[in-house]
Each structure stands twice: as C-alpha cells, then as structure tokens.
C-alpha cells in the first residue's frame, strides 16, 4: 500500500540488530573479514563519542533534576523523593543478594569465557580518540554542586540554562545516540559471533533475564505490601489495578509516555488526587526500581563472566550512586542505562566492550524494567497518600511539574 509506514520501536531494532550481527558474523569467512572490521571501525568511533557524551549526559540531567526538585516542592515532595530513593536502593540490594546467591552456580561453567575478549575480537581499520571534557566522577560532583546550588539560591536563570542544556543533551541522545545504537550493537554481536563467543553469552543471559523478571515482581509485591499495610488495604487489589499501566509501559518503553495511564490507575486506587498529580510525574523521573534490578543483575553477571571479583563493598556504593544517577535518566527508551554507563566505568572498571554488552543486554529487556518502574509508582503514591493523611502535611506551594 502507498504511504504505508512501519514504525519499529527501539526494542525491535535492537533485536533485528542482534540477529543481523549474529547471522553476518557466522557467515563471514576470513577472506571477507573486512565486513566485520568495517563495523568494528564504526564501533570504535561511536564508542569514543559515547565516552565523550557520558559526562555531559550526567551533568545535563542531574543538575536540572535536582534544581527542579529543590524549587518545586515542600515536605511531601521531599518525602516522595526519599521513599523513591529507598525503594530504588532496596531493589538494587535485592538484585545483589539474589545474584550472588544464584549466579555463581548458574554461570559457573562460563567463568572466564569473556576474559580479555579483545584477544579474540577483530580490530578496526583506524582509531579516533575523542577525549571527554572531564571525567565521570568530576561530572557527578559538578552535577550535585550546581544542582543543589541552583535549588539553594533559587536562581530561575540558572535553572532555565540547565533545562536548556538538558534539552540539547536530549536531542543528542534522541537524534544521534539512540538511532546509531542498533548499528553499534550489530557490530558488537557480529564481532563476538565471528570470534565464537556469542552463543555462550546469549545462553547464559537467557537465564539471567528470567531471574530479573521474577525479581521485578518480587519487588512490586514488596512495594504494594508496604503500601497496603500503611493504608490498611489489600495490596494485591492495589497491584491488580495498576496492571493496565504495567502492560502499557511494556509497549511504550517509557515511564513518561505512560504517565496518563499510570495517573488514571493510581487514582483508581483511591489515591488522593493532589498526591497522585505530583507523585506520578515526579516518580516517572526519579523512581526506577525495576531498571535498578536489571542494571545491578546485568553488571554482576558480566563481572562473573569476566572472572572479576564481586563483593558487597564494591556493589553497595554502586547501588547507592545508581539510585541518585537514575535521576539523570533521560525520558527515552534505554535512558536508564545511558545515564548509568559512567558508573560502570568509574566504579566497576568496565572497559568499552563490557559497557557495550551491558547496554545491549539492558535494552533487550528494557520494556519489563520500565513496566516495573511504572507499576511501582502507584505504590509510592499510596505511601505518600498515607503520610499526608496521617500527618496532615499540606504544601502551601504547588509543586512545579517536572518535564
């Protein structure tokens, strides 16, 4: 039909890219390895640009995120942010406890299979260095200093500047990084297939994905049990009411795009309308418990596969930082992993191959992590509802809406 357009979402493009990479990598012979090397050359340049962009992404999203929180809202918003952060950290600890209990046995036959992967992978035709303006930790510290500073001095001009900078970074992500990401991932899997590594990786992570999805529902159950207790309501009825939002998020892959449905279902749970109106949009930005479970599980699995140590002293600070960094997650599919890539490098010592693999594996199940985030927002709203009802906290100021 004339004018018929097919709109393939990011998940679909990632699946196609992975399949394309595996097929080409398995068919290419040594005589035609220039095909793989062409993709590897692109990957090298794209990876350098990604490293350049990571500190800017952190600065661009955390500064206005903290600034808007400080400007917008009184006690209830502060309580909401605290509950959302505790929920995110709890999700990370749940993932850590499960991963260290199950993954050593699940992945035992695969330990060291990805060790020093560069030795088996092909090299590109050339290398171009694009050094970042400043390091990841510098970006994090700057983000907190400027974000808290903007909130403290209540500078509308600085906040507007930060929001404009965020808009630029959003364009870079939406128009450059996300569209090129499938080609990058195709090249990663093409090279790994050519080197004979991909079958092992996919078979291992199929089991990891099953564990992740189960953990999502364990976390949702915990959130709604707490919400049910503080409100003296049936938690499973509350969770059932939020299921339309859960399944909508699977399709949209975006907490922001699902806000209308999330808000409707939250109010259907008899949540105070004033509370629902600011908690749901706010939590769409700062509450990513499902994504945290996925990220924590994926990075621990990658560490095990690379025969690297996994300790509580190493992962707990990562989880604490991840809970804050999730504020920087842009409102696009795959945004959470893009915001977290800096932590992979600075806190866990990931190299470019490990970062690229983490991005690909995260995006492969991004829909389910986003759905868990969205469904959990309804529980957070019910908790804040109980706080407002039981303590008579009323804000005189109307909270600013977070874009």
Report on the architecture of this protein.
- 76% of the residues lie in helices and 0% in strands.
- The protein has helices at residues 10-27, 33-72, 75-106, 136-153, 156-194, 198-231, 235-241, 243-252, 259-268, 273-286, 289-305, 312-325, 335-348, 352-364, 366-391.
- Mean pLDDT is 78; it is low at 112-118 and 394-403.
- It contains 15 helices and no strands.
Principal-axis shape equals globular
Proportion of beta-strand residues: under 5%
Radius of gyration: 21 Å
How many individual helices? 15
Sequence stretches where pLDDT stays below 50 over 5 or more residues: 112-118, 394-403
Largest sheet: none
Beta strand count: 0
Helical residues, percent: over 70%
**Terminal Cα span:** 38 Å
SS content category: mainly alpha
Averaged pLDDT: 78
Order of H and E elements: HHHHHHHHHHHHHHH
Indicate the topology.
Blueprint: H1 10-27, H2 33-72, H3 75-106, H4 136-153, H5 156-194, H6 198-231, H7 235-241, H8 243-252, H9 259-268, H10 273-286, H11 289-305, H12 312-325, H13 335-348, H14 352-364, H15 366-391
Helix pairs in contact: 1-5, 2-4, 2-5, 2-13, 3-6, 3-10, 3-11, 3-12, 3-15, 6-7, 6-11, 6-15, 8-9, 8-15, 9-10, 9-15, 10-15, 11-12, 11-13, 11-14, 11-15, 12-13, 13-14
């Amino acid at each position: 039909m004339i004018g018929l357009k097919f709109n393939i979402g990011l998940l679909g493009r990632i699946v196609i890219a992975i399949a394309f990479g595996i097929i080409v990598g398995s068919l290419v012979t040594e005589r035609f390895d220039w095909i793989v090397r062409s993709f590897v050359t692109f990957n090298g340049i794209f990876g350098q640009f990604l490293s350049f962009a990571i500190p800017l992404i952190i600065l661009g999203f955390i500064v206005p995120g903290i600034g808007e929180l400080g400007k917008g809202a009184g006690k209830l918003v502060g309580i909401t942010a605290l509950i959302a952060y505790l929920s995110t950290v709890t999700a990370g600890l749940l993932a850590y406890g499960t991963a260290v209990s199950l993954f050593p046995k699940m992945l035992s036959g695969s330990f060291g299979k990805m060790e020093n992967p560069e030795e088996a992978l092909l090299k590109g035709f050339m290398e171009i260095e694009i050094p970042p303006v400043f390091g990841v930790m510098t970006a994090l510290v700057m983000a907190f200093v400027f974000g808290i500073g903007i909130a403290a001095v209540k500078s509308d001009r600085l906040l507007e500047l930060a929001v404009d900078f965020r808009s630029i970074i959003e364009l870079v992500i939406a128009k450059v990084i996300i569209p090129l990401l499938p080609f990058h991932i195709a090249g990663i899997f093409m090279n790994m297939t050519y080197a004979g590594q991909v079958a092992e990786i996919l078979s291992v992570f199929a089991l990891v994905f099953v564990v992740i999805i189960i953990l999502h529902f364990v976390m949702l159950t915990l959130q709604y049990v707490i919400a049910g207790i503080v409100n003296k309501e049936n938690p499973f009825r509350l969770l059932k009411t939020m299921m339309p939002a859960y399944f909508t998020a699977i399709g949209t892959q975006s907490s922001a795009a699902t806000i209308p449905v999330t808000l409707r279902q939250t109010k259907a749970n008899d949540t105070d309308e004033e509370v629902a109106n600011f908690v749901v949009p706010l939590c769409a930005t700062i509450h990513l418990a499902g994504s945290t479970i996925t990220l924590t599980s994926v990075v621990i699995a990658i560490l095990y596969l690379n025969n690297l140590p996994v300790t509580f002293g190493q992962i707990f600070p990562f989880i604490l930082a991840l809970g804050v960094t999730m504020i920087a997650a842009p409102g696009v599919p795959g945004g959470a992993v893009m915001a977290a890539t800096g932590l992979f490098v600075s806190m866990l010592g990931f190299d470019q191959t490990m970062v690229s693999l983490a991005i690909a594996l995260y995006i492969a199940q991004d829909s389910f992590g986003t759905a868990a985030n969205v469904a959990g927002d309804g529980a957070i709203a019910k908790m804040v509802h109980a706080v407002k009802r039981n303590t008579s906290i009323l804000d005189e100021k109307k909270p600013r809406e977070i874009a």
